[in-house]
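B., you asked whether I could sanity-check this one before it goes into the benchmark set. Here's the sequence:
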Amino acid sequence: MNPNLKTFLAIFLFIWGVVGVVLAVVNLQSAPAATSSAVVFGALGMLGFVGGWLLMRRPSY
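And here's what the prediction gave me:
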């Protein structure tokens, strides 16, 4: 995979992770807490963080 594309995708996934976590916090702080949507946004945010981390780690061979 092209290193520039790999870096771009990793940054995109990290931003996706931040947005997901922020949306989860905002949904939990609303007046009637929207827990189910907060859990979904939090899970998608964590998937973004894990995906970005997996793309940015160095190969171990």
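One thing to flag: The mean pLDDT is 91. Otherwise nothing jumped out at me.
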